Amino acid sequence: MFSEGTGKFYVPKGLDFAGKTGTSESFLDTNNDGKVDTATISSSFAGFYPSEDPKFSIVVITRMYLIKMVKLMHSTSELVK
User: Fold this and answer.
1) Average pLDDT score over the chain
2) Hey, which end of the chain has fewer CB within 10 Å, N or C?
3) For position 21, what pLDDT does the model report?
4) Cβ distance 44 to 74 under 8 Å?
5) Which residues in 64-78 are b (16+ Cβ under 10 Å) and which e?
6) Quick check: 11 and 51 in contact, CB under 8 A?
7) According to the model, what pLDDT value does residue 55 have?
């Protein structure tokens, strides 16, 4: 049940809903040149209702491309000079 965590603000009081969030960081080779060039953050949520005898469930996954790593490495090398 959502009695703690950030989810408690999104579920109406008295609604017996349960769920869990997650976050992961990944690194991708977006142009298939064998070099990692993009960092991503994936966020997920899995929940069910009612928590004692579930009848409904939901899973949401989002991915956000954070930064092109080539630009980051170039910016960092400029700082070092």
Assistant:
1) 75
2) C
3) 86
4) no
5) eeeeebeeeeeeeee
6) no
7) 94
